[in-house]
């Protein structure tokens, strides 16, 4: 097999060696190894995720997008390995296999940015539905990029096939790069507005975005080195492990953001459970007094507005430390303030909710609150704290409601 030095013409998008009689490019054994390792890692990751109870439902859209992203990078690595193997073992002359593997690999690589954007979008919006016009806007750049790869006229200007063995960049390759950059920008914008809520998930999501940008640059500038799929595989592995999505039965049970109140829900609290151990905590359970009256007398729309007002007001005073625990019950767990400040903020929150205007509400919205303090050493201690706060809540209900009951603060 003959090797030639590689030169690239920015004007024509065709290498000088394409004009020679014998044109063969050898990717090298190391590139085979990179793609093969990526295939094995992704295959194990996908099988483990599927075996742990993954089910296909629209309520778990971010998890579905992440799984599809795993599968898509697997396709990119697998067909990249097939093409490399063919080029290294003389399976190239007058054969359609290298061409087919190359095109599928390019389509798979171009699809990564779109699936990553969907993952970031669903991670932030939870279960809220998207309008059809939004879907059309979001899918348009991806559809144009794929169409450009499939149509012979445009495909030949994006990639040029050299001796049935290697694709080189053509003058229209910027179409794929532009599509990828648009989706990466959209993904960053989606998670940027909720970076406080996402916490470490935000940083792992951004890290994958940086690695993907690096992979695009490597594909464009370092044509001899084909390890972009391996880099994306390792980044996907860490993203899946550290973002919390590996616990399919837990985090995937529902979105961690409650659609109505726009605060974290009970499943979000379960995910944050480990962060509260071995810390000085202030815990409170809140309940809307006679919530059923709002639904019965003013309709469910009014009841929904009550839930939204309580959730958003609580967020103003306690940030991301408030959760919708279920129905009209809310939970606050924080270690970001003193006990005296915590009790004071509970009172201010209750007053703010009572003074909020809700159209059609038969009366002001009042709260009964039970609170306590503690330093849990393990998960069971934390559960005991929640039970203790719940007992104070029911003491407040039995005492006439619209009151704050809990431990004395010195």
UniProtKB/TrEMBL annotation:
<dbReference type="Pfam" id="PF00990">
    <property type="entry name" value="GGDEF"/>
</dbReference>
<feature type="transmembrane region" description="Helical">
    <location>
        <begin position="106"/>
        <end position="123"/>
    </location>
</feature>
<dbReference type="InterPro" id="IPR043128">
    <property type="entry name" value="Rev_trsase/Diguanyl_cyclase"/>
</dbReference>
<keyword id="KW-1133">Transmembrane helix</keyword>
<dbReference type="InterPro" id="IPR050469">
    <property type="entry name" value="Diguanylate_Cyclase"/>
</dbReference>
<dbReference type="InterPro" id="IPR029787">
    <property type="entry name" value="Nucleotide_cyclase"/>
</dbReference>
<keyword id="KW-0812">Transmembrane</keyword>
<feature type="transmembrane region" description="Helical">
    <location>
        <begin position="63"/>
        <end position="86"/>
    </location>
</feature>
<dbReference type="InterPro" id="IPR000160">
    <property type="entry name" value="GGDEF_dom"/>
</dbReference>
<feature type="transmembrane region" description="Helical">
    <location>
        <begin position="174"/>
        <end position="192"/>
    </location>
</feature>
<feature type="transmembrane region" description="Helical">
    <location>
        <begin position="135"/>
        <end position="154"/>
    </location>
</feature>
<protein>
    <submittedName>
        <fullName>GGDEF domain-containing protein</fullName>
    </submittedName>
</protein>
<keyword id="KW-0472">Membrane</keyword>
<feature type="transmembrane region" description="Helical">
    <location>
        <begin position="33"/>
        <end position="51"/>
    </location>
</feature>
<feature type="domain" description="GGDEF">
    <location>
        <begin position="279"/>
        <end position="409"/>
    </location>
</feature>
<dbReference type="GO" id="GO:0052621">
    <property type="term" value="F:diguanylate cyclase activity"/>
</dbReference>
<feature type="transmembrane region" description="Helical">
    <location>
        <begin position="230"/>
        <end position="248"/>
    </location>
</feature>
């Amino acid at each position: 097999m003959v090797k030639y030095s590689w030169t690239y013409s920015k004007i024509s998008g065709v290498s000088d060696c394409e004009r020679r009689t014998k044109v063969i490019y050898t990717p090298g054994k190391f590139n085979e190894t990179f793609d093969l390792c990526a295939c094995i890692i992704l295959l194990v990751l996908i099988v483990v995720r599927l075996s742990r109870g993954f089910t296909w439902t629209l309520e778990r859209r971010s998890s579905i997008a992440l799984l599809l992203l795993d599968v898509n990078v697997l396709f990119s690595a697998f067909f990249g390995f097939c093409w490399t193997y063919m080029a290294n073992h003389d399976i190239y002359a007058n054969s359609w296999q290298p061409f087919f593997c190359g095109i599928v690999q390019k389509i798979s690589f171009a699809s990564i940015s779109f699936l990553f954007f969907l993952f970031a979008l669903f991670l932030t919006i939870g279960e809220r539905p998207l309008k059809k016009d939004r879907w059309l806007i979001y899918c348009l750049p991806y559809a144009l990029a794929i169409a450009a790869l499939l149509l012979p006229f445009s495909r030949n200007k994006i990639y040029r096939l050299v001796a049935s063995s290697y694709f080189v960049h053509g003058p229209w390759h910027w179409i794929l790069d532009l599509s990828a950059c648009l989706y990466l920008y959209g993904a960053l914008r989606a998670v940027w507005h909720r970076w406080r809520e996402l916490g470490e998930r935000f940083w792992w999501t951004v890290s994958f975005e940086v690695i993907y940008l690096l992979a695009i640059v490597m594909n464009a500038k370092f044509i001899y080195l084909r390890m972009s799929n391996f880099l994306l595989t390792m980044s996907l592995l860490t993203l899946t492990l550290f973002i919390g999505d590996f616990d399919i039965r837990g985090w995937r049970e529902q979105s961690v953001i409650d659609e109505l109140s726009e605060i974290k829900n009970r499943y979000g609290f379960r995910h944050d459970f480990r962060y509260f151990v071995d810390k000085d905590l202030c815990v409170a359970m809140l309940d809307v007094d006679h919530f059923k009256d709002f639904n019965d007398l003013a309709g469910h729309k009014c009841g929904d507005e009550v839930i939204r007002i309580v959730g958003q007001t609580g967020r103003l005073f306690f940030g991301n430390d408030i959760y919708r625990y279920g129905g009209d019950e809310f939970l606050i767990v924080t270690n970001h303030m003193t006990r005296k400040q915590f009790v004071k903020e509970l009172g201010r929150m209750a007053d703010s909710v009572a003074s909020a205007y809700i159209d059609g509400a038969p009366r002001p919205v009042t709260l009964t609150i039970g609170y306590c303090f503690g330093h849990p050493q393990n998960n069971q201690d934390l559960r005991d704290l929640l039970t203790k706060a719940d007992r104070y809540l029911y003491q407040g209900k039995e005492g006439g409601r619209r009151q704050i009951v809990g431990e004395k603060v010195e």
